[in-house]
Specification:
This protein is mainly alpha-helical. Helices cover 47% and strands 9% of the residues. The strands form 6 sheets. A 3-stranded parallel beta sheet has the order 2-10-9, with no helix packed on it. Helix 10 packs across helix 11, helix 11 runs parallel beside helix 13 and helix 12 packs antiparallel against helix 13. Its EC number is 6.1.1.5.
Length: 548
Amino acid sequence: EGRGRILTAGKIVHSYPHCWRCRGPVIFRATDQWFMVIDREGHRARALAAIEQEVRWDPPASQNRIRESVRERPDWCLSRQRSWGVGIPAVYCEACAAPLLEPPVIERAAAATREHGSDVWFEQPVERFLPQGFRCPNCGAAGPFRKETDILDVWFDSGSTHRAVQATHPELRAAWERAAAGGRVAYFEGPDQHRGWFNSSLMVSVGITGHAPYTDVLTHGWVLDSQGFAMHKSKGNYLALQEVVDKYGAEIVRWWALATDWRSDVRVGDEILQRVADAYRKVRNTFRFLLGNLGDFGPADGLPDDRLTRVDRAFARRLAARVARMREEYEALQFHRALDVLLDLCTVDLSAVFLDVAKDRLYTLAPDDPARRSAQTVLWRALHDLALAAAPALVFTADEAWQHHPALVAECESVHLAEWRAVPPAAGEDEWTFLLGVRDAVNAAIEPLRASRELATTNEAEVEIHTTDETARRLEAYRAELVGLLLVAGATVRATLPKGTDPGLVVKVTKTRYPKCERCWTYRADVATAGPERGLCARCTAVLAARR
């Protein structure tokens, strides 16, 4: 201004870049940096080929994101001007100012870092990292040299983890190579990582090996609050993970995480976690029932399929189908669908139906009665399969259940090391669906009488099922087990409906005239009304007599 060379001066308000962390204005300064040249020796082309040919992207649209990111990315600036991190093991010749990135220096820096940590590069003098007689390859000077003070981009650190793990853990390297050759190496992160970890890992690995470091890349959504808003501490809708774990337990948090469709944005809040806790209790209670009724049972007590009761055989096929479905969903990385099947198996097939059907035999028959052993055989299969199916989500609970039965521990020391039970093809699953349909029709006919208090429980009901010839023949095979399946006092089947009748079942319900056995609580014609067996049915009398 004093020389009159400024036309005008003043303050203006305009858009200017600011630091995302401290919010201060950014001052630009041109400096020398270290780069990975992306197009050197076909690096970019090889990375794009790996994206297209070597990796399964889930969801498939995520492949487009990383393909465009790699196709458009500039050379990678690897250096950062920060006071913490992994130092770039380069030195500068003070005589000619040449930057030197020499293998002997790198190796000595790596050895020192392995022994003392990454700070050693900054704490020790440059001579600590120079081999004896080291000279500048550019000008031949014997020194002096100074260390590079920049650090590596942290994305280079994270992008190199696959290599670092293999280099320092031979046993993990072997497992990694087996997985890459015949299985899967999966990377799991959010959509921002197509320009971050997924990208940096690919760049490093392609540069070293020519191949991607992973076989599968899974892109999950964001975690939102219960109202669907992004969580921020400043908004007060942020849930601290440790607080959630302290309140609900790690099992609940893990179940919630796997029970969501990770491909989409997911919500979390107290109400949602409470529902997950309720689901967890149902699964845990199923484990408790199974273990409580298998205390006197081991695999040697099990019966082959052809000796199971017809009802048990039908449910065993349903169980096999459910297990096959869960395994398919896990293999497809559809964790939420696998857990949906698991919860449905526990709450509907087991707790609401089969366990109720089996209780009478489990509680009242002699320990070695074939009908009781039949039920226990199916419960044993269910325990084994449920433990393995629940293990990815309920890490502690599944192993706790496993450890509670000596026969399971004898098979394998932990559920997490166990193998799936060999399950035959689930032919005939429709039979259980058919039986459930009959049971539902009977319960629907009984419910009005329960509502009007004409019946206290279904056990007081005698049912007469009118149906078609085909259905009657099908039910005839279950004649001896129909009362136990329907949990009624008596059941008869009559083929009185013409073929094609909809719904195909007409159920008439009456209250039984039979007395109630004081031991098994079933209503039977053979309950004694006098003598020492008074109040007991013939079945319970025989069981008690055998015990004497």
